[in-house]
């Protein structure tokens, strides 16, 4: 086949393969674009031009929770993930891959408290954790969700300096929760998570 002949000398099978290849490339480009546009980076909160993200989320009210990831992580409108400061809940799946009783209980309690509701977010010192989640105290109806989870035995108090503004409250709430046998400190999951 010479340089100037183009498609004239090609078989219909070659033309069909070329069309399939072009369609594949086009489909790949569309999928790539969709994945890129749905990435966490593209779903960040938009802030008014006169405020930075830190200022906006220091004590931002009326932010709707759209998904509860687990006992100590939520997702808010815009796709931003929030990790509760000062507490830790058991993982939903344990190390063997089975559903953890205490992890499931913590997830369900967190859902009951915040899913589909408007919350207030309060920043301490750090902006994000190593996974890119915003670190915040989460308030609903004047109560701190982080503390409720500890007080009712669904989370442990665990401090990560420098974010320790309410750590003494969490430690006291955990002490009382243990004494009273609440949540996973009681008989629900037979002891520790």
Would you kindly provide a written description of the structure presented here, covering whatever features stand out?
The protein has 193 residues and is an alpha+beta fold. The chain has a domain of 133 residues: OB fold (Dihydrolipoamide Acetyltransferase, E2P), CATH 2.40.50. The protein is 35% helix and 20% strand. The chain has 5 helices and 8 strands; from the N terminus they run H-H-E-E-E-E-H-E-E-E-H-E-H. The strands form 2 sheets. It has a 5-stranded mixed beta barrel with strand order 1-2-3-6-5. It has a two-stranded antiparallel ribbon with strand order 4-8. Helix 4 runs parallel beside helix 5. The protein is elongated, with a radius of gyration of 25 Å. It starts with 11 loop residues before the first helix and ends in a 13-residue tail after the last helix. About 10% of the residues have low confidence.
Name the descriptors.
193 residues; alpha+beta; OB fold (Dihydrolipoamide Acetyltransferase, E2P); 5-stranded mixed beta barrel; 5 helices; 35% helix
Structure described in brief:
This protein has 193 residues and is an alpha+beta fold.
Task: Detail the topology: elements first, then pairings.
Blueprint: H1 12-37, H2 53-58, E1 59-70, E2 73-76, E3 81-84, E4 87-88, H3 101-114, E5 118-122, E6 134-140, E7 143-144, H4 145-151, E8 156-157, H5 167-180
Parallel strand pairs: 3-6
Antiparallel strand pairs: 1-2, 1-5, 2-3, 4-8, 5-6, 6-7
Helix pairs in contact: 4-5
